[in-house]
Design goal:
Elements (H helix, E strand, L loop, with lengths): L2 H28 L5 H24 L17 H29 L2 H22 L7 H18 L3
Helix pairs in contact: 2-3, 4-5
């Protein structure tokens, strides 16, 4: 299967899982019996063993050769700083805390589109500015349309 197709399938699966998962989370938070930090702790406690298992299998080539490089802890310090601070702290911890708190206080029909609209817009812009990825008028228009759609979807009547 071609790489682009794999990326699309996994992205769709992630979106489907997140969409269903956040509705479940909002329902749990709405019950008043579970708080947002408890929900994050449970989510992480359930996710981590599974993630480590999949990592271990990928590292040993179960998903194909070189699916997960070995020796990541010996990477340059700049890579490890981005991994720990960017992926772990910002995306992993702070974003999840903010997202779960927003689910506690707002409807999932507003919170999810806002969070998952800002993320790709920021990623496309930073991909262009920091990583040198391509940017054209089509992508610019798409970002504006996505942002406009979320504003229409989430704005009070």
């Amino acid at each position: 299967m071609e790489e682009c197709m794999k990326a699309t399938i996994f992205a769709l699966m992630a979106g489907l899982c997140w969409g269903i998962g956040e509705v479940c989370t909002k329902s749990v938070l709405h019950s008043g019996k579970v708080g947002p930090l408890t929900a994050i702790a449970v989510r992480s406690a359930i996710a981590l063993p599974i993630i480590w298992l999949v990592w271990f299998l990928a590292r040993d080539g179960v998903f194909g050769a070189a699916a997960e490089p070995k020796g990541w802890m010996r990477a340059e310090s700049s890579i490890l700083v981005k991994l720990v601070l960017g992926s772990g702290l910002l995306a992993g911890a702070i974003a999840m805390v903010c997202f779960y708190l927003s689910l506690k206080f707002g409807p999932v029909s507003q919170v999810k589109p806002i969070a998952f609209c800002v993320a790709p817009a920021v990623a496309v812009l930073l991909g262009w500015l920091v990583l040198g990825e391509s940017m054209d008028i089509r992508k610019g228009i798409a970002i504006v349309l996505i942002l406009a759609g979320v504003i229409l979807l989430t704005a009070k009547s």
